[in-house]
Amino acid sequence: MIKxxxxxxxxxxxxxxxxxxxxLMAYSFTxxxxxxxxxxxxxxxxxxxxxxxxxxxxxxxTVLLALVSATLATILGTMGAIGAFYSSRKVDSFISTMxxxxxxxxxxxxxxxxxxLLVVVFGVSKDTFIPLVVGHVTLCAxxxxxxxxxxxxxxxxxxxxxxxxxGATPSVALRKIVIPQIASGIVSGFALAxxxxxxxxxVATYTKPATFDTISTYVVNATKGAQTTIKTALWALSTVIFxxxxxxxxxxxxxxxxxxxxxxx
Amino acid sequence: MHIFxxxxxxxxxxxxxxxxxxxxxxxIVLFYYAxxxxxxxxxxxxxxxxxxxxxxxxxxCYSFAIALVTTLVCLLIAYPVAYILAKSHLKKKSVLVMxxxxxxxxxxxxxxxxxxxxLTLIEGNLAYYPFLNAxxxxxxxxxxxxxxxxxxxxSKLDDSLIEAAKDLGANDxxxxxxxxxxxxxxxxxxxxxxxFLPAMTNYVVLDMLYNSTYIMGSLIGSYFxxxxxxxxxxxxxxxxxxxxxxxxxxxxxxxDDQTIGGALL
Lengths: 265, 265
Hints:
The structure holds 2 protein chains of 2 kinds.
Chain A: H1 2-28, H2 44-51, H3 53-85, H4 89-104, H5 107-121, H6 130-154, H7 157-165, H8 170-199, H9 202-207, H10 215-224, H11 228-264
Helix pairs in contact in A: 1-11, 2-11, 3-4, 3-6, 3-8, 4-6, 5-6, 6-8, 7-8
Chain B: H1 12-34, H2 45-52, H3 54-87, H4 93-101, H5 108-123, H6 130-156, H7 159-167, H8 172-183, H9 185-201, H10 203-208, H11 216-225, H12 229-250, H13 260-264
Helix pairs in contact in B: 1-12, 3-6, 3-9, 5-6, 6-9, 7-8, 9-12, 11-12
């Protein structure tokens, strides 16, 4: 009885979480302009999505921005984590505390404060993309830091020392010993950075050039307008993103399963 | 010979500088702008203005109401989900857990668009239930962020404690309220802090669902649109104060690896 009840509850919550997006996906393959209307099968939303220059630029720009900021954030965050981990306790906790600020801060405040510093005080033009990239790196790097630190803590320090004893220079030992051991933390930090940048609305809206749009800012503006062709093309975009996310999750899970099997065999 | 001796500590310098420049100094600038007027003179008018204007105080109350209700609804849905998932012995449990986390990786503006279409279909006109829609949208957006930390905490609980309680004569109910619930407080705290603050500031969810009432985030947005950096800075500062209060409350209530960032990884 309790088991059945909990299964029902789980299913209901899953329906709440997925029904809207699945219904939208189904409608993206029709020529309907509102949910609920029944129209025939059509791919015109997908044609619009991939042929409208505006939409294409926006998607391409968002992905490029995510990759660039995630890469910078990963380099900075990883170096910061290694540096802080081997520094004195005081320095370590100083850097960790500063690192925590963007994590707990509201995105609105982060975006607004970076806009004021760079655009209002230093007079950097938003058109240079510098405020936007800086904003996204600030948003993402702390999470890279947080995903690398636990891996450093799990590491056996004697291996690094052994490498030094055997004649490796510190930089060689770092590359050959430390980096490989924290690689999984770096990779998951990078992945997290990419998703944070892709999902961000607030930092982008306060720091982006007026002519540039990310998916989030574009969608938010589009819902205020009344352009139906764009609106339904965004349904197609939701479908594409949903499928991509499922594929990435499935591949990551399969690889994790295989590694587990390999470890237990 | 070596002018610059490589050491692991020095790796942290770029990141420390980055944090000082783009995380700490924006906050200092924010502070300066909040307490000055357009002529650069010191003033507390922004501060007193906020707390004496019935409109802004109303906004503060409305934000708190939305955040409180959203957090409660999220908690009431997420706790049973996390509990059932953590206690189930399904073979493919990781897939089920993944289903609850996956929406995090789909762009939130697209998900809210989907929700908006469904709500429009159900309610006919979104204008009838602005508060309900706002809470619904926020819950839809933030639910995974509540489920994840709760699941992490509950699945780490030691089952033998519950067995011991039962051996000592506690029934299921007593064992849950005396053992499981108190021990899952760290998860509840980090889940609450991941939902409450965004719910106070994420005004885009309201905008997209045609709820034109302001929350704290919308104030920053409107000051930004009016180039009023001083007023916006004061709102950002008040939000920062609320965040600080939260962080202090959270300290000591949770263990090291259950920080907000830790819960995301």
